[in-house]
Write a structure and sequence with these properties.
about 350 residues; alpha+beta; 9-stranded antiparallel beta sheet; 5-stranded parallel beta sheet; 10 helices; binds adenosine-5'-diphosphate; binds magnesium ion
Length: about 350
């Protein structure tokens, strides 16, 4: 394979795409980004890009002709698009995996089927609402598809409120609210039956959006190993290629419940760019481009803060200290709660 002309196609042009493109550059791999938004940070860093709807066959054909293989930075790229591309060129991770993980019901059913615990949940269409026990509440109703950063979620304090609510004609699951001790995540990269993972990150969410992550997580070594083993089991069962993230709840009894799987690089792994010998992004590029994975080693303790909406303006004029790394995604439009940048501090 001639690395100079070898081109990786990436669907999605957000900050995850931007960091993937930068890692590819470091490995001398050309990148071609396909995004449906003009306001895409990755387009300023890749070698080529197309801005078009993901359904545009003509543009997709042109894209396919000019890349050697494809990956994505966001799991909500339409399955049909990925499947269309996969028929002509290799896509990693496989679209069939995305089909499961794009759908919260399929995802949780799959996890339970391989013996991995999740929160208690029901498919709203199939459950007799009146028969749900009062003890099931408080609960969260989540759309089955297209949710991220808490989008598509409704909280119900009690059964009464739930029964009064009229759901639009969408597909939902209802999930018991967990009074968890903390949240952690494991980022794992897998290529040809071999996998490497980072030790768990500890995450704090506010209004269902990640606020900060830090390493090392304040958990026992045993729990860290358990979480990594669960992530490995999932990646192996899916025969996964690339980087993915498993989000967990740690219950008060120190039990691990999987909240969700992100079949891509993940916000909680941003600190790997500064705290580790290899980043989650580089290992994703390595996995999908047939390069040997690097075993992650932590060099520093670190904490990462997400910068949302208008807060980015403060950071833009702020003095950044020596052990701080400020990332401005360069998004043109500032929107409330939109991820605009992040800051990592190493110790
Ligand atoms: P998204 O796809 O939007 O990230 P998640 O299901 O991961 O959706 O929910 C986002 C956050 O909301 C979680 O990280 C957690 O903090 C909170 N959350 C979600 N489900 C539950 C639950 N069943 N119990 C307690 N907190 C929850
Ligand atoms: Mg989540």
């Amino acid at each position: 394979m001639n690395k100079k002309t070898f081109t990786l196609g990436i669907f999605g042009g957000g900050q995850l795409g931007k960091f993937l493109v930068q890692s590819a550059k470091k490995l001398n791999i050309r990148t071609f980004v396909f995004t449906d938004s003009v306001d895409s940070p990755a387009i300023y860093y890749c070698d080529d890009f197309i801005i078009s709807s993901y359904e545009n066959k003509k543009k997709l054909d042109f894209f396919i002709k000019n890349i050697d293989l494809a990956t994505f930075e966001f799991e909500n790229i339409p399955f049909k698009t990925l499947d269309y591309v996969e028929k002509k060129i290799n896509v990693s991770p496989k679209p069939t995996i995305i089909k499961i993980l794009q759908d919260r019901l399929k995802e949780k059913t799959f996890l339970n089927s391989i013996g991995i615990k999740t929160t208690e949940f029901y498919y709203l269409k199939k459950v007799d609402k009146k028969k749900l026990s009062n003890n099931f509440f408080p609960a969260l109703v989540k759309t089955i598809r297209l949710g991220y950063d808490g989008k598509g979620q409704v909280f119900f304090k009690n059964k009464n409120d739930f029964l009064k609510y009229s759901f639009k004609n969408k597909e939902y699951i209802i999930e018991k609210l967990i009074n968890f001790k903390k949240e952690i995540s494991v980022v794992i990269s897998r290529y040809k039956e071999k996998s490497v993972s980072f030790d768990a990150f500890e995450n704090l969410h506010k209004h269902q959006i990640l606020q900060k992550s830090h390493v090392p997580a304040n958990i026992s070594p045993k729990l860290n190993i358990q979480a990594k083993e669960i992530a490995k089991k999932i990646a192996d069962k899916l025969n996964y290629t690339g980087t993915m993230c498993v989000e967990f709840f740690v219950t008060k009894k120190n039990e691990l419940l999987v909240n969700e799987i992100a079949p891509r690089v993940h916000n909680s792994g941003h600190l790997t760019m500064n705290a580790h010998n290899v980043s989650q992004f580089e290992n994703h590029i390595r996995a999908v481009c047939n390069l040997k994975l690097k075993k992650p080693k932590r060099i520093h303790k670190a904490i990462m803060y997400n910068i949302l909406g208008n807060d980015i303006k403060k950071y833009r004029s702020k003095e950044i200290a020596m052990k701080e790394f400020f990332y401005d995604y360069g998004k043109k439009e500032i929107k409330n709660k939109r991820k605009m940048g992040h800051l990592t501090k190493i110790f």
